[in-house]
Design a protein that fits this description.
Length: about 500
């Protein structure tokens, strides 16, 4: 059962259970501070199957808003934390995902006639709201798990006990992806920056800020990772709940507005550098992604260290066999690591520009550097360079690289582990603001329910974004569950502290 290599790691956990009985509770805590309880569903086999069907509908990752100018987030809808908001007067309730990886609020429209997804979810009826204001501007948003087409409207939005007046949101008229048919959520409430908002609609926190509804210009997430706990967690607007974290928050400035993006350092396995992000990587704190997504070169090292079973990559082993010694010699000769693969003829991109005449840039165009052999070479360079620092012999270095090839995840990113071995796995740690944020095996291994039994999977999945936007990490619910996260839009910074 744990041997099924076709399991899809990042699953849309909402798809397993009905949301018909969900109620969003909120508790006001003085003026301008609002607590919103989060609900969650357990991961199970049914959710995995639903996610796999949805994934097959998308042949490639789709760009986010604004013509793909921003980084497309993989597995956008894979979250298990959600709540209920009301739109209109009197409020019409909708189950929404609170997502820091997007910025628009959208729900199905009563004018959605030709999409099955709309008929099996709650639909907004503008005629039944006394505070509705027409807008009419049409729009389309494409995600990794499907697209929506609709038009803008304005109405009051009830978030817990806060009424946000005249909020611009999207009424969807088409939801063609099977993702939305299978999804038990009605819509999305985006909490990203306005820079990635379609139609320049202000995210709900910006509207709260402008209407002076908050005590402080922050919102914070506490995600309850206890699968048996009745509460899924808590989203607080206007402040933080001191009972939900330990110690002090470590803050890091937002490096690029749009997603909640910041600069992070290395990932350590039992205190040892994985090399790829030793000089820094970009990262995004994303409540809308269940797992941790990062460069394949590091994910393979993690899978090797924890004994995860990935799909054997013939191309990777071929590169190590045929070119491994050449890569090793070039690195010993102090060749720039980014130029090694182009020098041996496996890549058309040397890390700064194309080596093929007439191609100005591969970023945003056809990514020649994403060719399988090129990608395998680039990973081999990282692994070999990392082992050189350890003063290993040539034989041990090439043997190690060959072993990592065997730990490469499948195209869907799945990697299973033995549940009995969790206690023997190493700690992993991210370096953020020169501080170490450790994840124990119990925190980075995700347990799935399957036929009444438990399947364990690695919380790490492969996701490669080339320079200059990458390398990139997406720190999803696995990380945010371990670390209480503050999104400070007043000071454009993100804070992390151990969850209580």
């Amino acid at each position: 059962m744990m041997r099924h290599r076709q399991l899809l790691l990042a699953t849309t956990c909402l798809w397993a259970l009905s949301c018909a009985s969900l109620l969003s509770s909120s508790t006001p805590d003085g003026a301008g501070l609002l607590r919103v309880s989060l609900n969650k569903n357990r991961l199970d086999r049914e959710a995995l199957t639903a996610a796999k069907v949805a994934r097959k509908q998308d042949s490639r990752l789709l760009g986010a808003a604004n013509g793909g100018d921003e980084i497309p987030l993989v597995d956008y809808l894979n979250t298990q934390y959600f709540g209920v908001v009301g739109i209109g007067t009197p409020p019409q309730n909708f189950t929404v995902i609170f997502d820091t990886g997007s910025s628009n609020l959208w729900v199905p429209s009563s004018k959605c006639y030709f999409s099955i997804a709309c008929y099996i979810h709650h639909r907004y009826k503008s005629a039944k709201s006394s505070t509705y204001k027409a807008d009419g501007e049409t729009c389309k948003i494409s995600y990794g798990s499907g697209s929506i087409v609709g038009f803008f409207s304005k109405d009051n939005v009830l978030v817990g006990d806060l009424v946000v007046k005249g909020q611009k949101f999207i009424e969807t008229r088409r939801e063609p992806s099977v993702s939305f048919i299978l999804g038990k959520f009605d819509g999305i409430l985006g909490l990203g920056y306005p820079e990635i908002s379609v139609g320049k609609a202000p995210p709900i926190w910006q509207s709260m800020q402008e209407q002076k509804l908050l005590a402080d210009n922050v919102f914070s997430f506490w995600l309850n990772r206890n699968p048996d706990a009745p509460s899924g967690g808590e989203l607080v607007f206007g402040g933080v709940d001191p009972e939900r974290f330990k110690g002090e928050h470590t803050y890091v400035p937002v490096s690029r507005k749009g997603y909640w993006q910041f600069n992070m350092g290395d990932l350590l396995i039992d205190g040892h550098s994985t090399g790829f992000c030793a000089k820094g990587c970009a990262a995004i704190a994303d409540s809308g992604t269940s797992l941790l997504a990062g460069p394949t070169a590091i994910v393979a090292q993690v899978n090797h260290a924890i004994g995860a079973e990935g799909i054997l990559s013939t191309e990777c082993k071929e590169v190590v066999s045929q070119y491994g010694e050449m890569i090793l010699n070039l690195l010993i000769a102090q060749t720039d690591p980014q130029k090694v693969c182009s020098q041996i003829g496996l890549c058309m991109f040397d890390g700064s520009h194309s080596v093929s005449e007439g191609i100005e840039s591969v970023v945003g165009k056809e990514n020649l550097g994403s060719d399988v052999m090129c990608s395998a070479c680039q990973m081999a360079v990282v692994w070999i360079e990392n082992q050189l620092r350890e003063n290993k012999t040539k034989e041990l270095i090439l043997q190690y690289a060959n072993q990592l090839c065997e730990r490469l995840p499948s195209p869907n990113g799945e990697s299973t582990v033995s549940c009995n071995q969790i206690s023997k796995m190493p700690n992993l740690a991210f370096t953020i603001a020169n501080k170490t944020f450790t994840l124990t095996p119990e925190q980075y291994i995700v347990k799935l329910e399957q036929g009444g039994q438990t399947v364990c999977i690695s919380g790490f999945m492969a996701f490669d974004i080339p320079p200059p936007r990458g390398p990139l990490w997406i720190l999803g619910d696995v990380f945010m569950g371990a670390y209480h996260t503050v999104f400070d839009f007043g000071k454009d910074r993100i804070g992390f502290a151990k969850s209580a």
